[in-house]
């Protein structure tokens, strides 16, 4: 798909309409090549320096769950104005940063993301006020395992999922929709470094393995409207990224004070425990990410 042009870095009315019709939107350049290259280098430096550096959990856990709470790099990405300008076209002027994770497929490996809906386990029901922005920090192609979307599938309710806990599945529960998706129904969401896609929380999506010689690195950023109320009275958290987020619906977090600092790690553990009560509810096993 050709690069989607933006007006002053923002979505126009036709693009907004296309998002609601298809359930996704891509590709849009949100970040400069120089910035993207720097962010990738920063991430890979952290991976080298902190792989075995006394953290209480594996580094992968912090990269995959709420990285924005303990990694200034993740917070910088999640609050980048170029990304927020695009997200505003869907969620409006009030934007809560819900989470950031780094999702990497190493070269020539069989890691996959099975077809699923994000909202299946988040405890928000079938809300329109939540979306995912996926930023490519390296080329995301069919060969490297870019995302596949099922056009219009966000118009369906949450469909039954099954937990596989498969070793090569990058999802927390190995969750997968309990129906087969034909290859011809998948839309390949290829992205160049610095480009993003947006997708609705009910969008059925997944991705295949990386058969290339380079890492496929994505920053997966979840945003929601602070006006969305989480059902069931469950506590939840978010960073006020733009506009008025002081609605009383969320406990507002702060930017990390440094890389894996003691105070930030304590906040991280509290948030992870609270969210796991919903996200891992009913699971027959636990993963290291949420244990």
Structural commentary:
- With 291 residues, this protein is of the alpha+beta class.
- Helices cover 24% and strands 23% of the residues.
- It is built from 6 helices and 13 strands.
- The radius of gyration is 18 Å and the shape is globular.
- The termini are far apart.
Notable features of this structure?
single chain, 291 residues, alpha+beta, Jelly Rolls, four-stranded antiparallel sheet, 13 strands, 24% helix
Short description:
The protein is of the alpha+beta class and 291 residues long. The chain is built from six helices and 13 strands.
Topology (elements, then pairings):
Blueprint: H1 13-22, E1 24-29, H2 33-49, H3 59-64, H4 72-78, H5 81-91, E2 95-105, E3 113-116, E4 130-136, E5 147-150, E6 161-163, E7 175-177, E8 186-189, E9 195-200, E10 205-207, E11 216-224, E12 237-242, E13 251-252, H6 262-279
Parallel strand pairs: 12-13
Antiparallel strand pairs: 1-9, 2-11, 2-12, 3-10, 4-9, 4-11, 5-8, 5-10, 6-7
Number of helices: 6
How many strands? Answer: 13
Structurally, the number of domains stands at 1
The CATH superfamily turns out to be q2cbj1_9rhob like domain
- Over all CA atoms, what is the radius of gyration? 18 Å
What ranges have pLDDT less than 50 throughout 5 or more consecutive residues? none
């Amino acid at each position: 798909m050709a690069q989607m042009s933006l007006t002053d870095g923002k979505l126009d009315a036709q693009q907004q309409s296309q998002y609601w019709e298809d359930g996704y939107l891509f590709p849009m350049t949100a970040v400069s090549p120089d910035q993207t290259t720097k962010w990738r280098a920063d991430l890979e430096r952290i991976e080298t320096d902190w792989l075995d550096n006394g953290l209480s959990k594996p580094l992968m856990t912090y990269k995959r769950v709420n990285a924005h709470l303990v990694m200034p790099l993740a917070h910088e990405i999640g609050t980048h104005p170029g990304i927020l300008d695009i997200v505003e076209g869907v969620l409006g002027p009030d934007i809560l940063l819900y989470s950031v994770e780094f999702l990497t497929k190493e070269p020539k490996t069989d890691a996959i993301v099975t077809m699923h809906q994000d909202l299946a386990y988040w405890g928000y029901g079938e809300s329109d006020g939540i979306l995912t922005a996926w930023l490519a920090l390296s080329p995301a192609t069919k060969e490297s395992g870019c995302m596949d979307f099922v056009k219009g599938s966000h118009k369906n309710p949450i469909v039954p999922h099954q937990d596989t806990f498969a070793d090569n599945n990058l999802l927390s529960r190995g969750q997968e929709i309990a129906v087969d998706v034909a290859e011809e129904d998948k839309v390949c969401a290829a992205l160049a470094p610095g480009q993003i896609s947006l997708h609705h929380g009910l969008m059925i999506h997944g991705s295949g393995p990386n058969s290339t010689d380079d890492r496929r690195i994505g920053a997966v950023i979840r945003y929601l409207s602070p006006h969305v109320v989480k059902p069931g009275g469950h506590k939840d958290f978010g960073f006020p990224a733009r506009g008025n987020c002081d609605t009383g619906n969320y406990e507002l977090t702060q930017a990390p004070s440094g890389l894996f600092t003691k105070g930030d790690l304590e906040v991280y553990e509290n948030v992870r425990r609270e969210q796991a009560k919903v996200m891992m509810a009913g699971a027959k096993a636990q993963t290291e990410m949420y244990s």
